[in-house]
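Ticket reopened. Same input as before:
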Amino acid sequence: MSITVAKESFFGRLTGWLARSWRSDFAYDFRRSPIAIASLAIILLYVAAASFPSIFAPRPVFDLATLDFSDAFKPPAWLAGGDWRFLFGADDQGRDVLSAIIYGLRVSLFVSVAAVALSVTIGVTLGLVAGFFGGLIDSMIMRIADLQLTFPAMLVAVLVDGLLRASAGQRFHEEYAVLIIIVAIALSGWVQYARTVRGLTMVVSTHNYVLAARMLGRSVPFILFRHILPNVATPVFVVATIQLAVAIILEATLSFVGLGIPPTQPSLGTLIRVGNGYLLSGEWWLAIFPGLALLILVLAVNLLGDFLRDALNPRLK
Amino acid sequence: MLNLNMQRLASAFLAAGLLVIPLAAQAKPLRIGAQADAGTMDPQAQNIQTTITLLSMIYEPLVTRDRSLAKAPALAESWTAVDPLTWRFKLRSGVKFHDGSPFTAADVAFTIARAKAPTSQFASYVAGTEVKVVDDLTVEVKTAVPDPLIIDKLLYVPIMSKAWSEKNNALQPQNLREKQESFTALNANGTGPFKLSSRAPDSRTVLDRVPDYWGKMDGNVSQVIWTPIGSDPTRVAALLSGELDLLVDVPAQDVARIQQNADIKTEKVDEFRTIFFGFDLKNDSLKYGEPGNKNPFKDIRVRQAINLAVDRDAVVRTVMRGLATPTTQILAPKNVGYDPALDKAVTTNRDQAKKLLSDAGYPNGFAFTFDCPNDRYINDEQVCKTMATMLSQIGLRPTLNAIPRARYFPKIWERDTSMYMMGFNSPYFDGMYALETMLMSRDDKKGEGIYNYSNIADPVLDKAIAAARAELDPKKRQDMQAAIYKKITDDALFVSLYNQVLVYAMRKNVSTPVRPDNWLEIRWVTVN
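Engineering reply: fixed in the latest deploy. New output:
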């Protein structure tokens, strides 16, 4: 009996929350923005495909025994010589390009989301600490951030990748390539969050409820994460969305130049790199379709990020 | 006063103009692109055709080839057999090395002795020879047993200066396997038509014409700019955009597109290079396989299964775009020892391959890693990817390890491999060199088995090869070698795929013959 009550109250709370969300300004803005709706739909489709590639991909790509050389270099289905089993054509081994893109997307999205999550964690923590304590700690963290801003993100990522490769050896690098590239991208992006959060934290720290919490003797981590973080989180969310697009591009770039994901578990960037070898010889679909998939994804993420920035900024109202 | 100055200035300009204009008219630089650099400037440290080709512009051997590929005099004016073991060479007089020192018999003796060093990759060409300096311009080369190929072998031993090598502490060939840095890695001093002007490994090497070259140049190249570009599309784009004049290794997939360009022409020849795979045939367990498993490649049925799994026509059609000829032996046509009967087509038969595997005790296949270079042969990495796919289709679980040649060759030299890719052309158009270096039991001193990366050790085979080597009657030797090649194919010691078609692409104003051994002869290149 009591279980049923708990369930009802849970659903009651959920529907209440949904109803309130639906009536909010934010949801109203969203409903009136076709670009935001389209972007979100595309992103959801990509995420679904990347989460369940075995459902979305028409053909297996990793089981070499299923490939057939008579399918090699089949052009996209609508061209002469095409085959509807290979919508976007086939590669030199007779592998379906569309399926390869879907599996590649999985790697690309996983790497970029993980990298952003890591850099948010690092950046927000350092930003909170710097803004709350001020003084020497603040100066040190912010000077490190300034220093890092003088390096392009790509350079930082290459540097981290190179250091880890040299210190841990080639074999380690191949086994942990995904982890290494996540760290490399994360370390190149944390500054954005740290700077955003620091400024807001300095403002919020002077608010009365923070002073009250301090007088009550709450611990510093509790104040930082329970009282200040929720009040500085919105801009972080916006920055993270835009940084996600940056991370996707950065991963693709690193993979394209051969520093990223090895060809055994190809990401979109790896697919483009491999396809690039055939651009001059007529098999354009090997590079163009992974490139288009990447372009549409980054565009959708950026457009959604723009929408969030506008919708969540009270000054633009 | 002013007038006088003006006059002086004018005459200075005139003089400068007179100097500059004829030079500009004569300057015929040739910008060559290749997929990888020559690994060294030491003529005895790396037996790879790229290196041999580039160094042949700087260094010269005693004997060279003419346009019909017949042997022709180079630093030796003539040679005669004194007895069945001894050849006497009359050396050319008045030849100078690029540093100005004269070329003499002492340099020949020094070079051949240096080529025998343990760090030399050319020891097999001079193994067992003794050099006697008769006078300043006469040497005698004595072989241990009658060797009908000794003159051909000396083609691969370009002459270095003794004095220069002594002065620069270059008495031993650079040890590339130990990644040794030596004076000869970056410096060269030969007698050839070009001298080394600048060397930036893996990026750019510039050679300039020697004005007082002793010999005859059919061509008119004044400067060679050698640029290795690893990426296939980038290299092709560099030719199409006019940054290069000549590509010596056109990727098969780009040939059709290059031929459409009105500014570029291509030259093709059936190269004497066979692409095949070899296996660890010695160790009882696979180094790069499942731990605890015995070495499956020692079982002939496994090798036959792999042979049946390979779809040569598909590889030639897709990866090589028709620019190769399928083969089932490791020697190319027109070489001594070639037997056309061995090139009968093997039909791909996966069911029979699976049955052979299961008979051999591997009904579920086995896992292993195989090694391939990714910048040595045309489309090598793609061919290996295709190989992995084909082997997966009979139930094997291969992993491809594709690495640059600078890491690949030292690795397989150490026999640190379970299965490897090889592209071999037997030099001097005779299958004996391949037999001696790849099939005989290893003996580095004699130069035997140095490329026996499979660790084959078969006394019967050793004996048969040695007998063929000592045979002086050409007809008999051809038959003996053909019989050995038949045994290699029958025992499936290697799994061969195809013979490459070599394609050079050049701008319309460049012309050069293409040799089937992929040896670019700079004396024959003209730029209009």
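The two ends of chain B are 47 Å apart (CA to CA). The longest strand of chain B covers residues 264-279. Please confirm and we'll close it.
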